[in-house]
C-alpha cells in the first residue's frame, strides 16, 4: 500500500523532476521526495541521478552521493536511485511536528556540485493509543452522590492527525459513565462520572475497562483497567442476631460461667464495623450479677446465681459501632431452680424432760420446716429415727408436733436422742436432721427386788454373838431416793419380845447379825420376813423371807435315862427270871442325846461285866439279853457297866450301871438285895417302905385295870391293840413337843413299843411317858423329879405299868 501510494507520488515527482534540471543551476530548487515512514531498507525513494539529470554513467563517474547529519539514505551507485538506508521513524525524527522533512545534500564531483534534497516523511498509523498505566486504581466513598466526576489519565498516541487518539470508550456499566472533555489547550481527557450511589455492602469493588481509540484506518486501541474500590462509610448500624435473647441457667453454676453471647453484626467494615457492647441502664442489679464482654458480647455470671433471690433477669444490651450507630436488644436470663437448699428444721418449743409416766400423745416438741427451693425441691417430709416411742404429727403449714407414742421407762432408757430428719423431694433429695436429747425423769415406779426369792442360811450353834449370819440385798432401778433401799425386819416367827435379842439387820447394808449365841437344842430354825423399802413417796417395798437354820454341834453328851439312880442316888435293879431262856430280853439301856443327827446317834458298849458272856448288849438298841441259861454257879446278882457314846466328832459319852438280879419274884429278890453288897445303906428302911407302898399302889392299879378291861370287853369286842407310843401321841393340846425335836431326828431309843396287854408282869420297862411336861422334865435333866413324876402320872392315868425297884 505504502508502495502503491509512493508509486503514485513518484509519477508526480517524476514529472516534477523532468523539469527540474532545466532550472537547476539557476533555481537551486531542492529536489523533493515524499515517502511514508518505516519503509524497508533498500526501498527506492526516487531516481536521484535522473532527477539531477545525470546519466547512469555519471553516477559512478562523478561519484554521486548524499550527505546529512544523520544519514538515512544512500545512493545506488549503478542506477543512481536514492535508497532507504536506515529505519525511518517519523515519531522519532519529528516528534509531534505536523510536517516532517529530512534535508540532505546530493554531492557530485567533476565538477563538484551540491543539490538540496528534501525528503518528506509521511505518517502512518503505526502506534496504538497507550495509557501511562495499565491499571488505574480509584477509591470512591460510598457516600459520594451521583454526578461526581473523576478525571482519568489520558492515553497517548504519538501518531499525528488522523492517526492520533481520537476517542475513549468505557465498557457499559450501571454505576459509571464516561465523559470525554476537551482540554482548554487542546486534546481530550476522559472523566468518569458516577451515575448511581455506590454501596460497599453490595459491591465493594468495580472493575472497568477504558479503551482509547485512534482515528487510523484501521483504528488502533489501547486499554487500561480501572479498579474502583468503594470506600466504606458508616452507613449501617449494628444489627443483633436476635431481638430478644432468652436463656435459662441453672442456679448452681459457678461464677465466671458463660451464659450467653449476644452478637451484633455491622455491614460496614473496618472501624465502622467494630462493635462495642454494653449494658443499658445503670442501676440495674443484673449488672452486679453478670458481666458483659464489651468486644465479644459474651455474658458471664459475675457471682453465683440464686433462684431464691432473683428468678429472672431482664437486661438491655446496646451494641454500638465506632461511628456511634447503635442498636439494642433485650436479654432475659431465667434462673432455674436447683435443689440447692436443704430443708431446715426449726424447733420452736422443746421440753427436754418428760416424766416417765407421761400419757400417749404428750407433746415433746414443736417444730417447723423450711426449704427455700420451689416446687418439689421445696416439698419437705419429716421422719424420725426408728424404734423410739415417738411420732410426728404434722399440722398445717409445715408445722409439726413431736409426741410420745409409747410407754416410757426411765429404767430402760433414761434418755432418747430423737433424730428428726427432714428431706425434700428433689432429685437427688437433700435432707437435714436435728437431734433432740430428751431426758426421762424418774418416778418411783419400781419396788425394790430382792436378789433371791427367799434366803436360807445355816448357822452353827454356839456362834459368837454379833457375827453376821447373812446378807440380803435388794435392788431398785429408780433414781436417787426413789431407788435407795433400806432394810428392816418386819415379821418373824420368834416372839416379838425376844426378836431383837436374836437378830438384827443393818438398814443400809442388809447384813443380818446374830445378837446371841444360838442353841440348836433350843431353837432349831426360825424365819424372818425382811423388808426392803425405797425412800420414794409413796415408798415401795418388797418382802423376803429369811430362814435361819441353827446347825447342830456335838455339845450335848448322851444322857442315860434308864437305868437311873433312885431319888436317893441309889441304883435301881432289874430282875431276871431264873428260868430265862437264852436271848431273853432282860432290860434296855435307854439314853438320849439332845443333839441331833450323828451327834445323837448313840451306841452302847459294855465296859465291865461281873460275868462276861452272860449278857449281850445291842450296839444300837441298848437291849440287854441273856446269852445263855443261868447256871447254878452263876451269882444271882450281876452288874454291867455300860457306856453310851454318841457319833459326834469328838464323841461324847456317858456311863450307866445295870444291876440285874436273878429271881422269880420281887420278894425273892428283895432279901437278896438286903443281903446284897450294898444293904448297908442308911436309907434302906425308908426305901423298903417306899417299895411296899409302891407295890400296894401297883396292885390297886392292876385291879383297876382289870376292872376297866372287863368293863370294856363287856361293851365291845374290840381286840386288844398294841399301842405305839410316840412322842407325838402325847400331845393332845397343841404342839407341846419340845421344839428341838421338831426338827432333826428323834433318838430312836424313844420310839418304843410296849404291849398293851399287861399280862406279863415281867416286862419291866420305863417306856415312854405320856406327858409332855414329864418329857420336858426328863430332858431338862432333873432325874429325881422324873422318877417321881413318872410314878405319879402312871398312877393317875394308868396307861402302863412300871415296876420301879429301888435297891
Ligand atoms: C445421745 O447423744 C449424746 C451426745 O451426742 C451422747 O452422749 C449419748 O450417749 C446419746 N444417748 C443415746 C441414748 O444414744
Ligand atoms: C422420785 O419419784 C417422784 C414421783 O414418784 C418424783 O417426783 C421425784 O422427782 C423422783 N425423785 C428423783 C430423784 O428422781
Ligand atoms: C410385808 O410384810 C409386812 C408384814 O407382814 C406386811 O405388812 C406388808 O404388807 C408386806 N408387804 C408386801 C409387799 O408383801
UniProtKB/TrEMBL annotation:
It is a single-pass membrane protein. The chain crosses the membrane at residues 688-711. Residues 1-28 form the signal peptide. Residues 73-131, 132-240, 241-345, 346-450, 451-560, 575-673 form the Cadherin domain. SMART domains: CA (SM00112). It is found in: Membrane. SUPFAM superfamilies: Cadherin-like. Keywords: Calcium, Cell adhesion, Glycoprotein, Membrane, Repeat, Signal, Transmembrane, Transmembrane helix. Its main location: membrane. It comes from the Eukaryota. This is Protocadherin gamma-B7. It comes from Galeopterus variegatus. The gene is PCDHGB7.
